[in-house]
TrEMBL record, chain A:
Record-level GO cellular component terms: membrane; proton-transporting V-type ATPase, V1 domain
Protein name stated in the entry: V-type proton ATPase subunit F
Transport keyword on record: yes
Coiled coil: none
Organism name: Erythranthe guttata
Automatic annotation (TrEMBL), chain B:
PANTHER family: COILED-COIL DOMAIN-CONTAINING PROTEIN 115
Matches recorded under Pfam families: Vma22_CCDC115
Region (Disordered): 104-144
GO BP terms, alphabetized: vacuolar proton-transporting V-type ATPase complex assembly
Biased composition annotated in UniProt, kind: Basic and acidic residues: 121-130
Protein name: Vacuolar ATPase assembly protein VMA22
UniProt organism field: Erythranthe guttata
Species classification: Eukaryota, Viridiplantae, Streptophyta, Embryophyta, Tracheophyta
Amino acid sequence: MANKPQIRTNSSAIMAMIADEDTITGFLLAGVGNVDLRRKTNYLIVDSKTTVKQIEEAFKEFTSREDIAIVLISQYVANMIRFLVDSYNKPIPAILEIPSKDHPYDPAHDSVLSRVKYLFSAESVAGDRR
Amino acid sequence: MQISEDGNQSSNEIAGADHNILNLLDSMDNYLILVDSLSSSLRQGWLELASARYSMGASRVNSSLFDLKSHQLPNQDLDNAGTDTELPRFTLCKWTSSDEAKLEEDELLKNKSDNPPVQHQESEERKAEESGSPVTANNHAEKERFKSLSMFGTLVSPKLRATQSTFETALETLVEMSNLRASLLRAYDQVQKDRKTDE
């Protein structure tokens, strides 16, 4: 019980996004953009000039904020920081990997689905038999 | 007698474990269906956005026009996790105004020292009252939609409006996916627990 992550009981929270320009433009049109008093946005636009370090910092910041319930991340961006995404195990904020224009969704790379795949894989079964 | 009782107990345990595995596989299947639906919405949205950019010009539809002034977003996710449940539940609160959101926040801050279940009930009652005036809510939603579109100018292409509508649908799918992800992770934890018990 002591090791279970605590679930926040906030009443309202926002969504954060780490994706390409078109995806973020679309979701901003849908009304999920937020800019706080320090002019910090709830999104990071990833383009050819964005470094892996910037993506890591944005991911760490969004997952540590109390007011964020869902973090949307394009799967190809998540692949750049796969170690960080796979080691994340809190229930909130929920991390959702989404496809992008140039990179279709691959369930094998999704952090949650790959765990399930491992659970039923031959190696995992063989490990139990030993 | 004892052997048959033990036999019954172990068969119940096996049935329970099978049930958990089926839950996990069902959740995973539903999650993949939602991902497929999301992919399809996003593809449509990107195509409409590209059409809007083509008709309005690339300089009128790009990230340099994003509003970086401090503003609270009109679409919020509510996290309804109460103290008596381990499963988080996400609900989309569409197109609330910044004033309404601030009012709700102030109310919640005021009531924070009181019982949490009461605070949840109060916000539900307010929503029930608000839903009694659908025309006002619709007008309000239209105003908020217009505000979001006004980032790209007053007169925008119908394709941009279509993009907004498509991404709103994608947003609803995302909230469903978040809920399904939570139940998928719960089912995964149950199956892992069963496996450790078997070992």
